[in-house]
Write a structure and sequence with these properties.
Order of helices and strands: HEEHEEEEEEHE
Structural class: alpha+beta
Protein name: Cyclophilin-like domain-containing protein
Number of helices: 3
Distance between the termini: 41 Å
Organism: Streptomyces aquilus
InterPro entries: Cyclophilin-like (IPR041183), Cyclophilin-like_dom_sf (IPR029000)
Largest sheet: 9 strands, antiparallel
Strand content: 25-35%
CATH architecture of the domain at 66-178: Beta Barrel
Keywords: Signal
Strand order of the largest sheet: 3-9-1-2-8-6-7-5-4
Helix content: 10-25%
CATH class of the domain at 66-178: Mainly Beta
Pfam families: Cyclophil_like2
CATH topology of the domain at 66-178: Cyclophilin
Radius of gyration: 16 Å
């Protein structure tokens, strides 16, 4: 399969996944209870994501389109995802519960169940404290509690979490769900 055909196939597969996710959100039955999982493992939680709630294309807001519900160590915080292809792909993984560990005294990181798309990535931007990002080479989620050193094409900003830096820096577990 040539690269153009592969890209077309990949776009069609992504569009199908998004449509299936939106269709799943129309089910009004309660989610099934989650199974017990050994400590330290990353586990999906029980509810499907919802479609984007509003559009705001102001560059300073990094194109926020989806509110998400985030808890850090069981305490809720306000958060949003932007309208990038990687953020939409990430939304397809929700709900998630992930164990976090420190990385370079700048961010908390966790590995996702699968890699996200990096096609159509926006221009690189230096991460700010509170940014939720995806580091493509390692396939991990990064929650910045300090501003990052510089922009990198390998780091895709997915959204932002509104919490103080001490809370972000000390977080051991993050749960991310689509907002109701």
């Amino acid at each position: 399969m040539n690269s153009a055909a592969f890209r077309t196939f990949a776009r069609a597969a992504t569009a199908t996944a998004v449509l299936l996710t939106v269709a799943a959100c129309t089910d009004t039955s309660p989610g099934s209870p989650s199974a017990t999982v050994p400590a330290g493992q990353q586990t999906p939680t029980a509810q499907a994501p919802t479609a984007p709630s509003s559009r705001n294309t102001a560059p300073s807001d990094r194109n926020i389109v989806m509110d998400i519900r985030v808890t850090l160590d069981g305490r809720p915080v306000d958060a949003t995802l932007n309208d990038s292809p990687a953020a939409r792909d990430f939304a397809g993984l929700l709900p998630l519960s992930l164990d976090l560990e420190d990385f370079h005294q700048t961010e908390r990181v966790a590995y996702l169940p699968r890699r996200l798309t990096t096609s159509g990535a926006p221009e690189p931007a230096a991460p700010k404290a509170g940014d939720l990002a995806y580091y493509a080479p390692w396939g991990n989620l990064a929650l910045f509690y300090r501003d990052g050193p510089s922009a990198s094409a390998d780091l895709l900003i997915l959204g932002h979490i509104d919490a103080d830096t001490d809370r972000l820096a000390g977080a051991d577990r993050i749960t991310i769900e689509a907002a109701p």
